[in-house]
Design goal:
Strand order of the largest sheet: 3-2-1-6-10
Helix content: 40-55%
Number of helices: 14
Distance between the termini: 56 Å
Shape: elongated
Length: 488
């Protein structure tokens, strides 16, 4: 029996079953981490997080062997990489060079194979780089529970590998949309090949009209990517995971509103004949994806020491030099036997230093240092939380003079406009457009729809003002995420 645990934010999902290329699910469990203990896959309070998981593990009698951790974190970098067919050692070095622009001092590499072009002998990989410091923290949390993690896998890589192995059997060009708490993620495959992954933070409850706007933001980013990449393959399906069947018709309408004309259906992993367990599996799809074995190289722990091994690799000349140093050291040890008196002197000094370390003053200063360190760590945790909030705020659009200029320039030759209001929370600019010819107004609306800075353009029916012989229409433009901030 294997266990796959999913970490990202407060929701912790656990899938128990048989792990392999074909997985089998036995049960799904969900718990919620203490507030603020983990944010975006970054552990802020390891003590409270570890204590909570340990208690939940024991209460539910979860196996402690063959445990894998699936982590979604903005500290893990990933990219598509094409590599010539070569042995694993050379492949690792090749992929590490692909990350040279973002490589940190202490990283571990993992990758999954997405396919091989037999004609060109090129392997397509999805490779990821994770900080070892972050991996060590997860290892320590589970070690304190008496669990030796068998592997640590990226949530992004795991779900991409799962989709490539399972969902491509029923469609080649599709989008997998995952609703996980306040995060909505999209995984795009085109002609059976992974092309795009994005995540959007939501601020409203699933199923509400406001939540659908959050959902639309993620689809808008997906649509922009497809236009930029000039992807013409028709979308065959949109898979939804992390919700209930009653919401599918509503989500289908949102998908159509954003120009995706494809049937929408809940993910059916086929892991169980039990309908209740089947529904639970798509809600906990990140944890379930960890039960699908993507190979040893998908595991960050497999290559944990690759970088150190490369740096410490020795050529024959270096080895001979070390052998000479070792020989000299042996001779020095022999001479050291003659210098026993010096050793006794050092031992006396050691005893003096030990007594000093045990003195009341030093013990008191050590306690003060530990308390200061704890206060520093608490302040750092608050600082990181504030940064997360700031990043979220930065995603809101703002209405600048440049945006108003675009509205007016676009209206030139069609209509006269008057700005009525800007709703900062919704990111909406409302204005009226007036023209003598009603067709000019609708031509202006078409021009607005072609502007990429607007995520959505809504308008009312027109009214005719006989006093000045003008047609009047009220227009509401919803700005795309972060629009206006790069213009400030």
């Amino acid at each position: 029996m294997s266990v796959s645990v999913y970490f990202s934010n407060q929701i912790i999902q656990i899938a128990v079953g048989s792990r392999g290329k074909i997985a089998k699910l036995d049960r799904v469990l969900t718990t919620y981490a203490p507030e603020g203990s983990i944010i975006n896959g970054i552990v802020m309070n390891s003590e409270s997080l570890g204590a909570h998981i340990k208690k939940f593990w024991e209460e539910n009698n979860i196996p402690k062997k063959d445990v894998y951790l699936v982590v979604n974190s903005n500290k893990i970098a990933g990219k598509n990489v094409e590599v010539p067919v070569m042995d694993e050692k050379k492949t690792l070095k090749f992929v590490m060079r692909e990350f040279s622009d973002m490589q940190r001092e202490d990283d571990s590499l993992a990758y999954i194979q997405m396919g091989t072009d037999k004609k060109t002998r090129i392997r397509k990989l999805y490779a990821e780089l994770a900080p070892k410091e972050q991996l060590r923290e997860f290892i320590n949390i589970f070690n304190d529970m008496g669990i030796n993690l068998k592997g640590i896998i990226s949530g992004e890589g795991s779900i991409i590998g799962y989709a490539g192995r399972i969902l491509t059997k029923s469609a080649k060009t599709f989008n997998l949309q995952i609703i996980n708490g306040n995060i909505v993620s999209n995984v795009l495959f085109v002609d059976g090949t992974f092309r795009y992954y994005n995540s959007v933070r939501c601020f409203n409850d699933p199923g509400t009209p406001e939540y659908l706007d959050d959902l639309g933001r993620s689809l808008n980013q997906l649509s922009q990517f497809m236009r930029a990449e000039k992807i013409t393959s028709p979308m065959e399906k949109v898979f939804i995971a992390g919700t209930v069947g009653e919401h599918v018709p509503t989500y289908s309408q949102v998908v159509k509103d954003y120009g995706v004309d494809a049937p929408v259906e809940l993910v059916n992993t086929g892991l169980s004949s039990n309908q209740e367990l089947l529904n639970a599996s798509q809600v906990a799809i990140y944890a379930v994806s960890g039960l699908y074995d993507q190979g040893p190289r998908s595991n960050f722990l497999t290559n944990f020491n690759v970088k150190e091994d490369n740096e410490n690799a020795m050529d024959p000349v270096t080895k001979r030099r070390i052998a000479a140093v070792v020989g000299t050291f042996v001779l020095m040890l022999i001479a050291f036997g003659v210098s026993l008196t010096l050793r006794l002197v050092r031992e006396a000094r050691y005893n003096e230093a030990r007594e000093y370390n045990k003195s009341a003053l030093v013990v008191s200063q050590t306690k003060d240092y530990d308390m200061a360190t704890a206060r520093r760590d608490a302040a750092l945790a608050k600082y990181n939380s504030i940064n997360t909030v700031v990043d979220t705020i930065e995603s809101y659009p703002v209405c600048t003079d440049e945006i108003i200029d675009i509205l007016e320039e676009t209206a030139s030759g069609y209509a006269d406009i008057e700005i009525l209001s800007f709703d900062a929370e919704a990111g909406q600019v409302s204005f009226s457009a007036k023209a003598r010819n009603v067709n000019d107004i609708y031509k202006y609306i078409d021009e607005l729809l072609n502007q990429e800075i607007f995520m959505r353009v809504d308008h009312t029916g027109y009214t005719y003002d006989s006093s000045n012989d003008l047609y009047d229409i009220h227009v509401s433009c919803t700005l795309a995420e972060s629009v206006g901030r790069d213009m400030e």
